[in-house]
Structures are given as C-alpha cells and as structure tokens.
Amino acid sequence: MFDDLDAERMLQALRAASEAFAAGEVPVGAVVYRGGRLIARAHNQRETLRDPTAHAEMLAITQAAAETGDWRLEGCVMYATLEPCAMCAGALILARLPRLVYAAADPKAGACGSVLDVTGCKKLNHAVKIESGLMAEASRRLLHDFFQARRPGSRKS
User: Fold this and answer.
1) What are the strands of the beta sheet with 37-43, ordered from one edge?
2) Strands, E, within 10-91: which ranges?
C-alpha cells in the first residue's frame, strides 16, 4: 500500500510535528508534494499565532496554493501526522486535493473516517482518496509524550 517515497514524505511531516512539540504546540505536522517536489511544510501554530485555524494542514494548504499560484491543489498529495479535523478535511475538499496520507487516527476529532467522514461524503463536489496508518505509532508516541509532559504531576525526563 505504501512505498519508500511515502515513508520519506511522512518522515518530513513527523519532523515538522517534532518542531511543533519543541515550540509548545500540539505536535502535528503536514507536508504537501506535487510532482515529487516538496511545496509546503507546516506544523500546528495555534498557540504561537493565537489563531484557532492555524492547524498544520491549513497552513500547508495555504503555502501550497501560494507556491503553485492556484487554489486548486490538483496533482498534490498531503502527508499529515494526525487524521484531519472537520475544518481541515473541508479545506482538503475545497482545495481539490486528490490524496491524503495520514499517520494516526484521531478518535476524538478525526473527520476522515474516525468520528466523521467529511472527505468521503458523496454529496460534496470532490472526494479525497484517504490512506492511513503510515508511521502511526511514531505519531501516537509524539502526541502521547507531548500531553504526558503537560499533565499535572507528570515526571519530566
């Protein structure tokens, strides 16, 4: 299902998520590739920007649109470390993104099949091909470590 190229690209998203962790942001990263070229790389910045929409996926979509000069991200693939929420899933549809690969499912807010299936809704004007599970454990571990470090009484290593 996944090839070596997919793995390399997800590693880029995981690196972006690690940067979010270091910045005190929830560690989610996203990258966008087009024609084998990296055109966007982002991580969550809600705290930094004081913006509830500053999710990694939203920022990566904005960067990719600026890079391509078009709001339609046809021919692009996004790799995200966590299943997108409803807002981000909606943005993927609006951007006409053909394919999303995400690492870990989000059982609380995932909108690509876990809690909701925004990207699979047949009534919408675009469908995104979803593939999941690539490097899921690495993503889950990063999220777990982030939230564990913020719990009262947790031991810092």
Assistant:
1) 37-43, 29-34, 76-82, 99-104, 129-132
2) 29-34, 37-43, 76-82
The answer to whether 47 is a known catalytic residue is no
- Residue 54, amino acid: A
Q: Which two tokens stand for residue 106?
A: 């989000």
Torsion angle, alpha carbons of 14, 68, 118, 147, to 10: 20
Phi, psi angle pair for 27, to nearest 5°:
-75, 85
Give the amino acid at 7.
A
One of 8, 19, 25, 57 is an active-site residue; which one? 57
pLDDT, position 157: 46
Angle at 56 between CA 50 and CA 60, to 5 degrees: 115
Residue 63 contacts residue 42 (beta carbons within 8 Å): yes
pLDDT tens, position by position, 84-134: 999 999 999 999 999 999 999 999 999 999 999 999 999 999 999 999 999
Contact between 26 and 56 (Cβ < 8 Å) = no
